[in-house]
Amino acid sequence: MRAWLVKTWLLKTWPVKIWLAVVAAVLSVASASAQSGYPDKPVRFIVGFTAGSATDITARIFAQKFAEVWNVPVTVENVPGAGGSVGGDRVAKSAPDGTTFYWGANGALTINPTLLTSQTYDVVRDLAPVVRLLVMPSILAVNNDVPAKSYAELIALAKAQPGKLSYASPGVGTPQHIAGEMLKRQAGVDIVHVPYRGAVLTDVMSGRVTMTLQNMGTVLPVVRDGKLRGLAVTSLQRAAVIPELPTVAESGFPGFEAVSWFGLLAPAGTPAPIIAKLHGDIAKIAAQADMQERLAQLGLAAAVNSPDEFAAVIKADIAKWAKVIKDANIKLSE
């Protein structure tokens, strides 16, 4: 009887807003309690590229670590197509239950939204950022017979010979292609773009193509072996693995940055406690000494952004690359 009277008094005296807050708090606690044992079933990382690609390799490195930490199977599923966007679409349409994630690169997440007119999902609306984890600059490298010994000398050479120099990229619409077009526009030079299917360096080494812009993991061994001459890196700071190379930014183009990155995203609507646990665990894994060493060998640096920071990076990069794509009139055959 006393409990009934107390309940009746509370119903009559507490404002509706307080009751709604109490209900929300109870539901939140119940949700967190239900997810405290997460994960209790297999987890998969969807990769939008084929096995052996940089995105695939990095995904498998972390999937193995997660499986060890969580004691559940963590697998990598390759769903290639449309520059990584087919895999992103698969995740965007998956249940937000913490079992499916997208291990994506910046090309698919921030270039494709402008470049692909047929993209079937909205990166910002349909995916929930968990962490931007890895960052890799590109290296601008030239054939050894090119007289330019610095980035400034290369730009001077290009201005003296408009349309005569050329640069190789891994393909139309790749981050390196877009970065190359931004370099051209900022420097005011006319350099011919030569797209390849993947990282093909033989024509640059032979002198058929003047220079190349490639991610560090691909071109660093060639530069170290002296087969190409590195002139600059595209990050804001010098790369720890090759600190003798200056940045484009310090070579006369302040603020220039064009890096590749990899991150983890979930389907929109994935519960916040799951995203928080995933972010916390991946930060611990990335900080392990053996992981740091392994990533450095691949030319990668860990940059553990929060979900909000990652979301801001995605939005800013979409706008940044959209301008370059439109200004350079870059088109992709779909």
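^ that was protein a. below is b, sequence first then the tokens
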Amino acid sequence: MGERAVEQKVLVAPGEGASVWLGGIGVDFKVPADLTGGAFSIVEHPLEPGRLVPPHIHHREDELSYVLEGRIGVRIGDAEYEAGPGTYVWKPRDVPHTFWNPGPEPARLLEIIWPAGFEQFFARLGELAQTVPQDEFPQRRAELAREYDHHFLHPEWVDDLKARYGLKLLGEE
């Protein structure tokens, strides 16, 4: 077997890549689908203390998070965990999950999504967050999510987690 020349990008520098802010969590796009032939994508999520990502389920992709900084809480199905720096968190497709930063420090996750494609939901959600009136945002977010076979569910988890950890959902004041 012969060698081949590398004709594509092979390094992503710190601070490189587009970013969107979603009211308590950022999405920093690091390794896009076109770089991996659609096999996977990688984003980083800076997460403010006291923020809760709405519980949801994906039917097309799996996610693997790696905690870079801070601590996060996660609920995957009926189990709840806490994860600190150096911990991997597996969020398989077809299993409801959520995560949050119990604080007091910011957290940052590296997230591998496969197959690639779902990262475009974050990009489009960032556009919605900038252009849609706040009172229309939840409905428009749900409509966009359905295009990716991604669904928000388990409002009872939200009430419980907010009460136990003093959290706010993304975008709440």
